[in-house]
Amino acid sequence: MAEATVAAPKARGRGRLRLRLISVVTLIILGAAVVASSVITQRAIRDQERVLLQERTGEAASVLGSAFAGIQQSLSLLGTIAGAGQGRSSLFASAARSALTSSTEGLVVTAQRGTGMVVTATAGDAPAVGQVIPADQEPLAHRALSTTGMVSGVLPNGSRSWLAFALGNAAGPGTVVWARVPFSAGSTAQALTGPWGNLNLALYLSSRPDPATLLVATTKNLPLAGGIQYPFAVGAETWLLVASSPSPLVGRLAQDTPWIILIIGVAVAALVTTVVEAQSRRRDYAAALVEERTASLRQAVTELEQTQAQLVRQEKMAAMGQLASTVGHELRNPLAVIMNVLYLLETIAGAEGSEAMLRHLATAKRETSAATLIVADLLDYSAGRTPMRAPVQLADLVAEALSVVPPPAGIEVVRHVDPDIAIDADRDQMRQVLLNLITNGYDAMPGGGILDVSVRSSGDSARITVSDTGTGMDEETQASIFTPFFTTKSRGVGLGLAVTKRVIEAHGGTISVQSTPPVGTSFTVTVRVGAPIVSVPR
Amino acid sequence: MNMTKQPDVLVVDDEPRMRDTLVAILELQGYCVSSAPDGETACAAVQDGSFDVVVMDIRMPGLVAEASRAVKDLSQVAE
User: What backbone phi and psi angles, to 5 degrees, belong to A480?
Assistant: First the structure.
């Protein structure tokens, strides 16, 4: 458990540099929403800006248009007066005086006389009556005469220019009424004041922004980039007003709104993503922690169960050992007495005893011997003593064991024994081990076979192998053969291999079994040469 | 040791039935057999009498070590 707490969940280290999918998705969605909002707002503000500019341009154009409409009305009225006056220029002059403004320099009435145009009435700074107008003004006059409604044009006037308005046939056929406004040629580049003071304006005497027809502009940067073109009627002609706005009409704050939305949005998106990421990591961490704790808990429970099972097993073994000891000691002497009595009876009966009696006595002796062997096993198992070591020549020991338990009929013993191997061991115990393995091998071959006993050296160990060609054992049996009181034999208490294993382990060695049904079984004992003594656990 | 006479045998065992059957078997073989139920009695018998053979259970209550030593001494004298 403690280890599990220290070894923090794997999730903690994972993805420290990389965002989780859910965070990435959140960031993308929020980012897209923020950018879209910003773009839409920007578009809306730009549209608003354009609408405002259009409105302002329209207003300016309509003011200009009505001003020029006023001029046309004045010219029409003055023409009527001049026509009614029939050459009395004084009447025209007095009427024209009221029409003269600070910007209008002069008003003139001309009439066709032969090939030229002759002044018939005048007011303000204008040519005298009877004077022929210069030839460069005649195209405008002809245009006025051929057009219904006022025409306009720029006329040279030394270094300066006039903007001339002309209304044809106003004072009778062939007459033209003129108004002249002086102005500096080209753009004045002077900013307007008043309601349109925040606009850049350019006025053209045609319906297209042709630099040749530019009348006036408030800036030298022409043509106006991104300007609104607003055509409007001046008499019979169409002029063009172009306007742009150097500073936003919607206001600086409105202009900056998309950026404000973008910055705040990005900050919010980053914050939300951070929270999502943190929550996700926390959840993963918690899940991993729970998983790990659960696993370690499960492991602890398993270990506990194993320990408990082992304790129960050990307790059972201890109780069985106690039982074996008691039973062994209690039965040993009675069996010895019975053996003695059987011997006595056999001897007393001697030659006089009937054959049946002697046969029965022999049976009783044989069965008593078998019981004595079982008791010996029980005592061996319960007595388990620490090995008393001395050098043991294994070849001699094998020969001795085979002479004690010679092979029954039908079984052949084959020896592959290295004659020079000696180990440091308890001779009696090792002899018991060999006897157990050899008799087990015999028992496994009721129908006969070959028992192979081999002793070889393997590194610093001696390896004793006892193989039979018997029936073999299944996996389950192999797993249990070293367990005390486990037996597959009809006679026996199942202690032989348990005792054998304990003896080998007390010698610091190992014993293993390999069995292939129905080929046979092979037991391998490995004991280190000169292995240290291991005290026997009771 | 008298070669014509059968050897004298002392059987020492605390288990009466074991002792009796051993005595019976040895007598059947023609030995002159005495018996003792514990180590003390065995010590006294070995020192008093002259036994050629002692058959003794070594896991028995009462002076087993002493009896063993007495038997060993006897065997050295006999040699």
Answer: -110, -5
